[in-house]
Design goal:
Length: about 140
């Protein structure tokens, strides 16, 4: 499941800071980062080595913050049109650049496109403390 491509995105382990809330605007550019497969709870289709880095992103939507693996529920491709550009033009939905699957930003649920019925993005747990966002519980 690893992209195999070198990434310049920051690598964040569980308990480490992802970004500050000031780095994100509602419906704006996503903050991209990488996580370690071994830090994730197993999910359907997970077959990566525990040492693999997986791409992820953080977004703000209507003053709420969400983190997901950057992995489309249709095919395990990153969603971005350009790095960090995942929201549609109306800044209401996340859209995969490959075959245009549309996702609700607050649930990760696929609501349109070629995903299997009931498919979702894989959500990552976050904790917000002192205006900073951390991966997992503190
Ligand atoms: S890979 Fe995302 S819609 Fe097909």
């Amino acid at each position: 499941m690893s992209t195999g491509l070198p990434s310049s995105d920051p690598f964040v382990r569980k308990g480490q800071m992802i970004c500050s809330i000031s780095d994100l605007q509602s419906g704006g550019r996503a903050f991209r980062f990488d996580v370690l497969c071994g830090d994730l709870v197993a999910f359907p289709g997970m077959n990566a080595d525990p040492d693999d880095h997986l791409p992820a992103f953080m977004i703000q939507f209507e003053n709420q913050y969400f983190a997901y693996l950057n992995r489309c529920a249709h095919v395990a491709m990153q969603l971005d049109w350009n790095p960090g550009q995942i929201f549609d033009q109306e800044q209401k939905y996340l859209v995969c650049a490959t075959h245009y699957a549309v996702y609700e930003p607050q649930t990760g649920r696929c609501i349109q496109g070629p995903c299997p019925k009931g498919a979702k993005l894989i959500s990552l747990p976050i904790t917000i403390k002192d205006n900073d966002i951390y991966f997992g519980a503190l």
